[in-house]
Amino acid sequence: MENVNKELKVSALENGTVLDHIPAENVYKALDILNLKGIENPITIGINLNSKLYGRKGIIKIADRFFEDDELNRLALIAPHATVNIIRNFQVVEKRKLSMPDRIEGIARCMNPKCITNHQPVMTRFKVIEENGEISLLCHYCEKRSDIKSLF
Amino acid sequence: MNKSLISIQDFSKEEILHVLETAKEFEQNRTQHILEGKVIACIFFEPSTRTRLSFETAVNRLGAKVIGFSDASNTSVSKGETLKDTIKMVSNYVDMIIMRHPLEGSSRYASEVSSVPVVNAGDGANQHPSQTLLDLYSIMQTQGRLDHLKINMVGDLKYGRTTHSLLQAMSHFEPEFVFTSPDELKMPVEYKDFLDDKGIRYTETNSLEEHLDDCDILYMTRVQQERFTDPMEYEKVKDVYRLEASMLGNVRKNMKILHPLPRVNEIDQDVDDTPYAYYFKQAENGLYVRMAIISYLLGYR
User: Fold this and answer.
1) Distance between CA atoms of residues A44 and A49, nearest Å
2) Residues of B in contact with A121 (CB under 8 A)
3) Is the same domain home to A77 and A109?
4) Which of A45, A82, B120, B261 could, after both became Cys, cross-link B107 (CB 3.0–4.6 A)?
5) Is A141 on the interface with B (CB under 8 A)?
6) Which of B7, B101, B103 is opposite residue A143, by nearest beta carbon?
7) What is the C-alpha separation between B7 and B1, in angstroms, rounded?
8) A10 lies in some domain
9) Are residues A91 and A32 in the same domain?
10) CA dihedral in degrees (B201, B203, B209, B211; nearest 10)?
C-alpha cells in the first residue's frame, strides 16, 4: 500500500515535462545541460530505476516547464535514447524523440589547454561530430577535438 | 559583413586561385600604392621576425600606414585587458587588423568582435594561413601548376601546423602525398581520414631517401622544440633527418625544396647552392602573397 502511494505521488504531474530513459549516471549532467539547477519549479528526480530496455535508468520530471527543441536536443549528447513526454492536465499530450544538435554553445569546455576559451571570458562553441557511433566536439575557435566528457 | 582570413579553410578554391594570381601581379610590380590613406594594425602578442616584417613591408608597399606592437609586455594587455577589449579598441582606429597571438582560436574570436577584417598571422599551433598561401604560390611558380603533383612532407608531421594546413589547401588539386617522419611524429589520424574521405593517395615512410627521387616538391620542416612537453622525446627525434647536396643526384629535374624557415640542421648549407633549393625565394614570395591577401580582403583586388 505504501509503495502505491509513493508511485502516485511521483507520477502526479499536472502540467510539465517528463524526461525518461536517461542513463542513470548522466542525470546530474542532464540537470546542468538543461539549466535546471536553481530554478523554482518542483522537480522530481529518479536515479537507478529499473528499465526493461536499458538496465538502470534515470528520470526527471519538471512541473510547469516546457522546453524548446533546441534546449532539449542538447540532452541527446549524453542521453541519445531519452524520451520526452509533455504532460497537460495529467495526460501525455505529446511524445518527442531527441535529435543530435549540429552545434552547441556554452555547455562544454574545450580540452585544449591553449585554447582561447580557457583563458578569456569567451563562450565555447562546438560543432558536434558523430563518427562510428562516437560523439566528439570540434572547437569553433582552436579547431581541436574534445570528447564528450568535456561537457559541464 | 567583413571577410577575414583566419583558417585556410575560410577560402574557397576560387579565392585561393584569385589570391595567387593577384600575388603574381605584385611580384611583377611590388610597389603599388593602392591603399593610400588606409591604416592597418599589426598587433603581435608574441615575437616573430619573418612574418611581422613581411606583413609590415606588404602594408608599406601598398601605400598604407602601419600601427601596432611587436610585444604585448608594454601594452594594456599587461594590465589585464582582455583580448576582446584590445580588439574593440584597435578596430575602431584602423581599416584592418593583422594579429599573432599565442593562444589557439584567438584570431577567430578577434574576428568576431572586430568591426574590420582580421588576418591571422599565427594563433599558437593552430593556423597560419598566409604561410599556406605562400607555400601554394611557391609550388605554383616552380611547377607551373598546382594539379596532380607529388608532395613529400618531411619532419615533424605531428605538431607542424604548416604541413596540416598545406595538406588541406592542396586537397583541392588532386595531389599525391608522401609523409616522411619518425614514428613519434607521424601525420595525425584526422588528417589521414580527411585524405581518405577525399580519395587522395598517400604513403608513409621513415626513410628520407625512399621518396627523394620521385617527388615534385620536398617540403622540409623543422622539429620544433617548443611543441614538445617531454624533453626526452625531443632529444630522440631532433636531428633525425639531414638533407645534403650529395643526396640529390637522381631527383626529378623540376623538384624543388621548400621549408617554412627557420631551418636548423635538417638542410645542410651545401644544398643552398643547388638548383633545387627554393626556400629563400619562398620567403620572398611571402611578401607578394601578403600584399595580395590584404588588398583582396579590403576589396581592392
Assistant:
1) 13
2) 82, 84
3) no
4) B120
5) yes
6) B7
7) 17
8) no
9) yes
10) -10
Grade residue A10 by pLDDT with cuts at 50, 70 and 90.
Answer: low
Task: Compute chain B's Rg from CA coordinates.
Answer: 19
Global pTM?
Answer: 0.88
Q: Is the pLDDT of residue A45 over 80?
A: yes
- Give the tens place of pLDDT for each residue, A86-134: 999 999 999 998 999 999 998 899 999 999 999 999 999 999 998 888 8
Query: Which of A59, A79, A97 lies at the terminal end of a domain, its last residue?
Result: A97
What is the ipTM score, two decimals?
0.89
Q: How far apart are the first and last CA of chain B?
A: 17
Residues A47 and A115 in one domain: no
Q: Measured between CA atoms, how close is A142 to chain B, in angstroms?
A: 4
Nearest chain A alpha carbon to B102: A114
Three cell numbers written together for A125: 562553441
Q: Are residues A111 and A137 in the same domain?
A: yes
In this prediction, residues B44-53 reach a mean pLDDT of 91
The answer on A132 and A80 residing in a single domain is: no
Q: How many CB pairs under 8 A join A and B?
A: 51
Say if the Cβ atoms of B109 and A122 lie within 8 Å.
yes
Residue A151: name the closest of A22, A31, A20, A47 by CA: A31
Look at residue A31 and tell me if it is in a domain. yes
- Contact flag B105-A119 (C-beta cutoff 8 Å): no
pLDDT value for B231: 86
